[in-house]
Automatic annotation (TrEMBL):
The keyword ATP-binding applies. GO terms for molecular function: ATP binding. It comes from Pyrobaculum neutrophilum (strain DSM 2338 / JCM 9278 / NBRC 100436 / V24Sta) (Thermoproteus neutrophilus). Residues 22-166, 229-343 form the AAA+ ATPase domain. This is AAA ATPase. The lineage of its organism: Archaea, Thermoproteota, Thermoprotei, Thermoproteales, Thermoproteaceae. InterPro entries: AAA+_ATPase, KaiC-like_dom, P-loop_NTPase. Pfam families: ATPase.
Amino acid sequence: MRIGGYTKKYFRERAAIGSMMLRGVTLVYGPPGAGKTTFAAWYTYNSYDRVFWVSAFEDEETFRRNMAALGYNFGGKLVYWEAVLAGAEAFFNTLLDAVAREKPQALVIDSVTEFLAAGGGLDILHNIIYRAVKQSGVDVFLTAEREVAQRVAYVADNVIELFYEVYPYGAVREAVVRKIRGGRAGYTMPYVILEGAGLLFIAPSSVSRQVERLETLTCIDEVVGGIYKGLLHAFVGPPGAGKTWHMLNVARSLRDRGVEPLLISISGAGSIYAEKFGVETIDVGLDLGEFYAALATSKAPVIFIRGLETFSKLYGIQLLYTAVRTLLKLARTGRAVVVSLRDLYDLDVLFDVIVKIEDRAVTGVRAPGGKIGERVRC
């Protein structure tokens, strides 16, 4: 099955790239709308063959329908319980008996906020977690609202905090890895939730430590050595200097050599330019969520972006910083990312490669290779 030109297998591979080894007890918390249920579904769907799901607020038919719309069709590998919150101790004991009988690999309690509000108590919750994990070897996933997260965080081996904010420029979601048992923590991963694709990380946790140089057979090779997978590039110059022309010329050359690039154009006009060069283009509006969705669903090894600073002109420089920081994380996963800008706005520290463009002449300002400081007319 294909979704927007991509296969189900592709999205599952993207999920695997962004996945963390969540073993033992995992707490996922955040505000309403952040995607706590979707996060738990994403991980368990891609990681286990047998899942026991307990929900305090959603019936099974609605849950399966909503998850199938995101691409998570659990089918027969899901055992679903609609929780009755009265008599929490009796309920949990019955649940443990069911877990022992069904023998799932993962148990999801969605959400513990409702259980605690119903008077279940931390001692009962701790008991069921201990018995499920220690006695049955089941991985447990708990979702919670932020206000109760600290009350249950101490029992968790892994803690993931989700952020969700809606701004005039679009919705922004980020996952902050607070704690990972035996693994690296303290990092942030922006993500989007798309119908048919589910939860997709824009810049997954995997980091490429290798930089690969791609020759472009253009004057960019002379001044900075080429385009580099694993690095973030800036093509900087005034309006009309030829930044878009240079990006598309490089993109066309890469495509002719077997590398399929992508141009993302913010706020229009991208496809008009790109058609002449035969470069795949996605036009997005002034919506950061739409822009992030384009990044998350792209499998291009080289991504060119024009119009990014339009966000800063309308919403302030902080938004440009946020977007560039996300692009740097994306580049560190092994992609080459090239952004055209009129000015660096004191963000030069975030760029690995900087090319100054004026009157179709290029000058290398920063790069691993090339003739830095030499001006070349193209």
